[in-house]
């Protein structure tokens, strides 16, 4: 069999990198649970017709079918491209068993058939936070989820040495109200094109607005002026007012941005900014929207995003408005690890390799390992009863810092060897689990 080639856009991490991913996932899940969010998991597939209802995503969807599917089979299925649409369906199906506001986090893979590039993959892991209400949901939840996400990012920065982030805050009501105040009949169409600002620049967006939507020069200039407003404090409201556009929905959006910005900035100053170019491309967002970038690595693109969706989940009688925020775990980690900027300092969780004198003494070595493991010390027994030098080299290649010989333990980095009892010996705290190495 020929050596297989990797499939573009489907990243697979080596063990040391996978350890970094697991540490990140542990930080995310523990932070979510500290804020009272419950873990859920949904199926990988949804009806294709359901997935194509939300936003400009249909060309990127992976369709799933049985090899011998026949005409008349059940609805065509597709892999979900995010976790929000499946979650909306989950809420509708289980509403009678949930307590509202329902607070959820979910960590799973998603799939999109887009062109692979750094920061964009066809298979990727996402971590979602959502709070969903019954019929209505208070605005303060729009500030609560950024607090959860920013706390997780701060822990990654502090504990793993990852770059800090800047969350950018926008509002669909603000933007739509502004465009309506300009006399534009289809504000959503403008939003979709302004959302491409990072990809094609101001000139490109201006062409789309004039050629595709028929906006005049003054309308286009005003739309781009709004998109250039950014502030870490409430001064953004004065900049919007200076543009001279009036509309009740615009006023409502300004008030919402002000309240969310003030609440989040009070706990994480410098980590959030009002940025009125932020629109989000999916059409289920109705109010607050978020985008987050790694400071110094903005070229990777948005690593976290989301927003308010007032009508995503509805059964025709009851509505379940919500607010959600996603952290793109793969989108963050794959570029950093691919550049050699982030990894673990060993490829195995083992802290100790228990040496084997000969095969007759393997049961005694297993007893030592069992004693260490009972106290939470990860270890493994040498695969062969080689000369001690070879067993030490085996541990060194795997990054294992300690080797156990009979009644002693050797730190193979310093060469220090001391008498030890497997029932009481403790490694230094820094060696108990693999450390994270960075090269910023």
Task: Give a topology summary.
Layout: H1 15-34, E1 38-39, E2 45-47, H2 48-51, E3 63-64, E4 77-79, H3 84-94, E5 102-111, E6 123-132, H4 140-160, E7 165-171, H5 172-181, H6 187-194, H7 197-212, H8 217-227, E8 230-231, H9 236-241, H10 248-267, E9 272-275, E10 288-294, E11 304-314, E12 319-328, H11 329-338, E13 342-344, E14 352-354, H12 362-374, E15 379-381, H13 388-398, E16 402-405, E17 408-411, E18 417-419, H14 429-432, E19 436-438
Task: Give structural notes.
It is a single chain. Helix 5 (172-181) packs across helix 6 and helix 7 packs antiparallel against helix 8 (217-227). The chain has helices at 15-34, 48-51, 84-94, 140-160, 172-181, 187-194, 197-212, 217-227, 236-241, 248-267, 329-338, 362-374, 388-398, 429-432; strands at 38-39, 45-47, 63-64, 77-79, 102-111, 123-132, 165-171, 230-231, 272-275, 288-294, 304-314, 319-328, 342-344, 352-354, 379-381, 402-405, 408-411, 417-419, 436-438. The model has no long low-confidence stretch (mean pLDDT 93). The protein has a nine-stranded mixed sheet with strand order 1-5-6-12-11-10-7-9-8. Strands 15-14-16-17-18 form a five-stranded mixed sheet, sandwiched between helices. Helices cover 38% and strands 21% of the residues. The protein is α+β, with helices and mostly antiparallel strands. The longest helix is centred in the middle third of the chain and has 21 residues, at 140-160. It contains 14 helices and 19 strands.
